[in-house]
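Retry 2 of 3 after timeout on previous attempt. Resubmitting structure tokens to design endpoint.
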């Protein structure tokens, strides 16, 4: 008789644990997973949009630079020379 009561008590405890602890925890974990997936999706979308804007801006800058160099070829060569000279000076001084 005592064994039967202990078995019933254990079964009731297991059932109560499933109902009051495990099921709510599983539900909460599913909600957190869904929320995390939504945040990831929104972040991907925003980053994709920002990347497209950066690509467009870079492309426009390259086009403007190319047009300016075509319109001012000697000035472009002078700027390139000055930048090269500055870079070499900085590299030499950083080795000391």
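Retry 2 succeeded. Sequence:
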């Amino acid at each position: 008789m005592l064994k039967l009561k202990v078995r019933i008590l254990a079964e009731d405890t297991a059932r109560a644990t499933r109902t009051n602890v495990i099921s709510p925890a599983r539900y909460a974990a599913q909600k957190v997973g869904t929320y995390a997936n939504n945040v990831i999706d929104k972040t991907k979308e925003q980053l994709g949009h920002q990347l497209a804007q950066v690509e467009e801006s870079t492309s426009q800058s390259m086009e403007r630079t190319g047009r300016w160099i075509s319109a001012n070829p000697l000035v472009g060569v002078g700027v390139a020379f000055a930048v090269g000279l500055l870079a070499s000076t900085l590299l030499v001084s950083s080795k000391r």
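Attempt log closed. The chain is about 95% helix and 0% strand.
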